[in-house]
């Protein structure tokens, strides 16, 4: 019994003399400081947080050298600090970093830059450093300088968001209209699907019914997904979009004289609508402009679709008027190429 007592004393004496690494030197009530300045072309963000707490939250010991050389810290910050300029989410890049002593504590100092296309009218900061990871009592003292206006806020577990500025109606409409146009013209899978549908047209009326059915369908699911009424995994949606391309391409190859039905455009339009909503899910839509943003984005997509139809449809009609009927091999040949892209996208997205 005496030996056991002596052993316990020995263990206690060792644990009281050995210091834990700073990685695990968790300190409640840690503090942070944010100095944010919005300029015409970028946002400069000086972030100061307790160095030991940062290491504890990331489960690794950090020093000055690591702050300079690793991108792990940058990725961690971008995953915990969400910065939106006119609803568009930005990614920060650490330009400089170091260690500073404040009130006898070491603070990690990171100077981040967020690139801007144009100077925004509204800025939203969503701050989650440490709050869900290691220290719910963490507080960050934020100062934002934006368009001659300065706003200060204490960001805590209960109050994590800071908003400054206001986006006007006209800018909101133009922004989401152009975003919809950009999305359709850079969404090559959507473009190939629309072209595949056009391969099966017979008349102008048939074109109108197909485009209308596709538009109504994707408008429905775009709204449902954006409003978070219906949610599907993005991997499933993207793979299903690839399958829609494969299906229509196979019809065009093995039955090039078939007439695509509106129900086909409507059914696959429902799937493509979830794909269109993907970009909006990454944004922070202003509640006061939600309907306007959604409608403007959808109109942008429709304008893009009409441009594609206006280019492809006359070419197809012209090919069908030629005496040697090149459409007999052009449509199946192009459909084989589209089929190959569809298969590649499906394999990439499904596996």
Description:
With 351 residues, this protein is an alpha+beta fold. It folds into 2 domains: 22-165, no CATH class; 169-350, no CATH class. Helices cover 54% and strands 21% of the residues. The chain is built from 11 helices and 10 strands. The strands form 2 sheets. The chain has a 6-stranded mixed β-sheet with strand order 5-6-2-1-8-9. It has a 4-stranded antiparallel β-sheet with strand order 4-3-7-10. A hairpin with a 2-residue loop joins β5 (93-102) and β6. α7 packs parallel to α9 (262-281) and α8 runs antiparallel to α11 (327-350). The longest helix has 32 residues, at 290-321. It is elongated, with a radius of gyration of 28 Å. It starts with a helix and ends with a helix.
- Tally of contiguous helical segments: 11
Question: Any idea what the radius of gyration is?
Answer: 28 Å
What ranges have pLDDT less than 50 throughout 5 or more consecutive residues? 2-25
Major β-sheet, in short?
6 strands, mixed
SSE inventory with pairings:
Layout: H1 2-17, E1 31-38, E2 42-50, H2 51-58, H3 64-69, H4 72-80, E3 81-85, E4 88-90, E5 93-102, E6 105-115, E7 122-127, E8 139-146, E9 149-155, E10 161-165, H5 169-186, H6 188-199, H7 204-226, H8 234-254, H9 262-281, H10 290-321, H11 327-350
Parallel strand pairs: 1-8
Antiparallel strand pairs: 1-2, 2-6, 3-4, 3-7, 5-6, 7-10, 8-9
Helix pairs in contact: 5-10, 6-8, 6-10, 6-11, 7-9, 7-10, 8-9, 8-11
């Amino acid at each position: 019994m005496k030996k056991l007592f002596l052993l316990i004393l020995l263990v206690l004496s060792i644990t009281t003399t050995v210091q834990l690494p700073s990685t695990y030197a968790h300190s409640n009530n840690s503090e942070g400081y944010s100095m944010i300045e919005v300029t015409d072309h970028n946002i400069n963000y000086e972030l100061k947080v307790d160095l030991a707490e940062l290491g504890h939250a990331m489960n690794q010991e950090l020093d000055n050298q690591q702050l300079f050389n690793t991108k792990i810290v940058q990725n961690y910050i971008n995953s915990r600090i969400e910065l939106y300029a006119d609803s568009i989410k930005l990614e920060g890049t650490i330009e400089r970093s170091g260690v500073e002593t404040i009130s006898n504590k070491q603070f990690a100092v990171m100077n981040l830059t967020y690139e801007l296309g144009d100077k925004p009218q509204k800025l939203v900061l969503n701050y989650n450093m440490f709050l869900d990871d290691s220290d719910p009592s963490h507080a960050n003292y934020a100062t934002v300088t934006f368009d001659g206006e300065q706003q200060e806020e204490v960001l805590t577990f209960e109050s994590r968001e800071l908003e400054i500025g206001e986006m006007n109606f006209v800018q909101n409409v133009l922004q989401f209209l152009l975003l919809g146009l950009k999305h359709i013209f850079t969404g090559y899978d959507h473009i190939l699907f629309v072209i595949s549908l056009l391969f099966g047209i017979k008349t102008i009326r048939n074109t109108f019914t197909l485009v209308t059915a596709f538009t109504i369908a994707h408008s429905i699911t775009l709204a449902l997904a954006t409003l978070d009424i219906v949610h599907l995994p993005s991997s499933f949606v993207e793979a299903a979009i690839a399958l829609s391309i494969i299906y229509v391409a196979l019809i065009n190859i093995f039955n090039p004289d078939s007439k695509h039905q509106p129900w086909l455009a409507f059914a696959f339009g429902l799937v493509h609508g979830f794909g269109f909503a993907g970009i909006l899910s990454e944004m922070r839509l202003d509640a006061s402009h939600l309907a306007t943003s959604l409608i403007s984005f959808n109109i942008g997509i429709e304008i893009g679709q009409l441009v594609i139809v206006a280019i492809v449809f006359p070419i197809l009609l012209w090919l069908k008027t030629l005496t040697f009927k090149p459409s007999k091999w052009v449509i199946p040949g192009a459909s084989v190429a589209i089929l190959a892209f569809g298969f590649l996208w499906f394999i990439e997205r499904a596996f």
